[in-house]
Amino acid sequence: MPYIETVHDRIMLEVFRGCIRGCRFCQAGIIYRPVREKSADTLNEQAKCLFESTGYDEISLTSLSISDYSQLEELTTNLLEWTDENMVSLSLPSLRVDSFTKELMDKVATVRSASLTFAPEAGTQRLRDVINKNVREGDLLRAVSVAFEAGKNSVKLYFMNGLPTETYEDIEGISTLASRVIDAYYQCPGRNKAKKPQVTISVSCFIPKPFTPFQWEAQDTLEALADKQDYLRSKITDRKIKYTYHDAKVSRIEAVLARGDRRLSSALELACKEGFKFDAWDECFDYDKWISVLEQSGLDPAFYANRAFGLDEVLPWDIIDCGVTKEFLRRERDRAYAESTTPHCREKCSGCGANKLGGKGICCPNAKVN
Ligand code: SF4
Q1: Going by fewer Cβ within 10 Å, which terminus of the chain is more open, N or C?
Q2: What is the mean pLDDT of residues 175-183?
Q3: Cβ of residue 29 lying under 6 Å from some atom of ligand 1
């Protein structure tokens, strides 16, 4: 270990792999299927071992959707038996609003204040149904009220612009939702009256990703995204709401890289020769230089980013089998356009195909593993 601050400067405890949900924009939720959990005992032992060998004072419980872990209660109780006295805090990444409880809140807040982040992803129920987020406004307001009652005064909410079927009404819904969160603060009798509420809304741009039901969708153009970002800014008038958004140019290059085919390799080689590096850092990212290497390689970024791929088109990543079938992704795409949701894997199996991978997990709970 170098003695420097690293990105994840804490114990990262991966609780389970995969996700029971099926958000239709999410690649990780598909390619890591099916869900496989570690037991609470194994995790407790691993956390102790990591603490003793590193001396870190924070444990982050990581997974795609940590509050869906079936033994979360037992795990947090076991951890708190020794983390408290050693001044080690527990932190949780972005939380699902529908499985966030007061008990969980009390546990993560035991030693130090943990920041709370929720990801409704879309501003209206209609669009949340399109993306299969399966959370309702009432769930969010209940979750933030739990946090406010416990003395928190600020929450961060993640959203996305440019999702398939998005309208300006959906965008306005983001600011309406943020205002309702502020209202929820003032309706909490146990709120921290010495402080004002603060809601940060962080809005990224939709990037169509391989192996998702939205893999065929076109990304909004830079102009359309800028327009949507401006529109949302114009709707936020309350200073208690802080609005941040992602650079659409970075998202466009990400879309090109996400859906590129073999011809993209010459552009990548050229980028490498020209010394591109650390492009994820704002100060190192140069959009015009990326466009230049694409053009020099005879490629049009719009072909990869802003074009709807044909449903019968052979996709560059069709040579890879991630377990989940293309038929399932097609079905899910149809359901998205019908604004119809799909139950999660614990409620009902939707036949995605990942069960063929076997192992002991949600699809094959009784399978033996060595
Ligand atoms: S096969 Fe069924 S239970 Fe298993 S990951 Fe797919 S949808 Fe979920």
Answers
A1: C
A2: 97
A3: no
Does 349 sit in the ligand 1 pocket, CB within 6 Å? yes
The pLDDT of residue 112: 46
User: What phi and psi values does residue 260 have, to the nearest 5 degrees?
Assistant: -70, 155
pLDDT-wise least confident of 11-20, 257-266, 332-341, 356-365: 356-365
CA dist., res. 300 & res. 39, Å (int):
48
Q: Which atom of ligand 1 is nearest to the CA of 18?
A: 5
**Ligand 1 pocket: which of 16, 26, 362, 364 to mutate (most atoms within 8 A of CB):** 362
| pTM of the predicted structure, to 2 decimals | 0.90
CA of 355 to the centre of ligand 1 (A): 6
Quick check: 297 and 304 in contact, CB under 8 A?
no
Tell me the C-alpha to C-alpha distance, in Å, between residue 91 and each of 43, 103, 111, 115, 327.
15, 14, 10, 8, 38
Q: Which two tokens stand for residue 346?
A: 């614990």
Q: Tell me, what amino acid is at 160?
A: M
First to last CA, the chain: 31
Distance separating alpha carbons of residues 116 and 108, to the nearest angstrom? 10
Using DSSP, state whether 58 is helix, strand or coil.
strand
- Tell me the average pLDDT of the chain: 91
pLDDT single digits (tens) 31-83? 999 999 999 999 999 999 999 999 899 999 989 988 889 998 899 899 999 99
Q: Give residue-wise pLDDT tens across range 303-324.
A: 999 999 999 999 999 999 999 9
Strands of the sheet containing 89-91, edge to edge, are: 11-14, 58-62, 89-91
Q: Do the Cβ atoms of 54 and 11 come closer than 8 Å?
A: yes
